[in-house]
């Protein structure tokens, strides 16, 4: 079992130049009248990958999925599946199944009849149907609910029936549009892991649309971050978080501090940046940054240390005042107002029950960080 999407160590076909892409969006554009919902977008997904499309409402995620399923045709560009151009192939002839957010189960049918429905329509022999349904019930752990009707199930159980129904026909690709949107937080988290196990066990390729970053981070092998019909970055959850390539992506996933400034001086491995108010920080070198260029250093809150005294060995230490403290149990979040006015967010893990260096509102404090604790962004 993989316990986290990003920790499937042996699975990384995107790093293998000889690996054949399974799903290919090749310069795909979709217009609705004058409106461009998807703009010249290229993207590849590999067989057995758990791929997530993440973006704000209206960014074109669902449109992309619907084109893959065959409910919409691209205005321009091609979509290939296993090398075959899908243009003109109707949805029911594609080896693709889509599970919608509002997973409409047939209310008058039992769980097993719901799961069997598509197989019957396909003309599968009755004995095979029984076997397949039993297998599906086992997979989604609903064996003892086979004879119940949807209204006799919880939301999470209904969701699992819908999943079983979607995979019963063994599609090669399962498309999931906000599959867990209707579940409460705790159930959603449990179901995320079940979904990952199911995908692993069946060896399917999953493309899931979500606007929930935690969900994408938990489940996906890779995530495509979308904005206004374009892909901003495609990478593993860890890369998206630790090495975003743009301000947009850095802001979109997790919390981040941005130190804006101009390149003052480049040394062998580091660059000195001067902020608008003259404060200087030293960061790891970024490619192509000439003296005077505008750049930003993006650093996550947990990579910033807060202390009452200036750390003796810190390359970067900026002074300010504690502006806000939020105790969250597992960690404490500090907002520090630097002397130049910028507010910095820093978080500290509460690894022991007693804090060694307690800091509270209005205390003078130092924030410090290493030159390689964040990333330099130029766009
Ligand atoms: N049939 C249509 N006719 C006109 N505009 C459409 C149509 N379908 C989608 N759009 C527009 O295209 C854009 C992208 O829609 P899409 O459903 O792909 O977004 P999304 O990223 O899935 O958003 P959400 O998370 O809200 O579902 C939206 O601005 C939407 O209004």
TrEMBL record:
Gene3D superfamilies: 2.40.50.100, P-loop containing nucleotide triphosphate hydrolases. InterPro entries: AAA+_ATPase, ABC_SmlMolc_Importer, ABC_transporter-like_ATP-bd, ABC_transporter-like_CS, Mo/tungstate-bd_C_term_dom, P-loop_NTPase, PotA-like, PotA_ATP-bd. It catalyses: ATP + H2O + polyamine-[polyamine-binding protein]Side 1 = ADP + phosphate + polyamineSide 2 + [polyamine-binding protein]Side 1. The keyword S-adenosyl-L-methionine does not apply. Its EC number is 7.6.2.11. Residues 23-253 form the ABC transporter domain. GO terms for cellular component: ATP-binding cassette (ABC) transporter complex. Coiled coil: none annotated. Keywords: ATP-binding, Cell inner membrane, Cell membrane, Membrane, Nucleotide-binding, Translocase, Transport. One of its GO terms (molecular function) is ABC-type putrescine transporter activity. The complex is composed of two ATP-binding proteins (PotA), two transmembrane proteins (PotB and PotC) and a solute-binding protein (PotD). Part of the ABC transporter complex PotABCD involved in spermidine/putrescine import. Responsible for energy coupling to the transport system. Belongs to the ABC transporter superfamily. Spermidine/putrescine importer (TC 3.A.1.11.1) family. NCBIfam families: potA. This is Spermidine/putrescine import ATP-binding protein PotA. It comes from Rhizobium loti (Mesorhizobium loti).
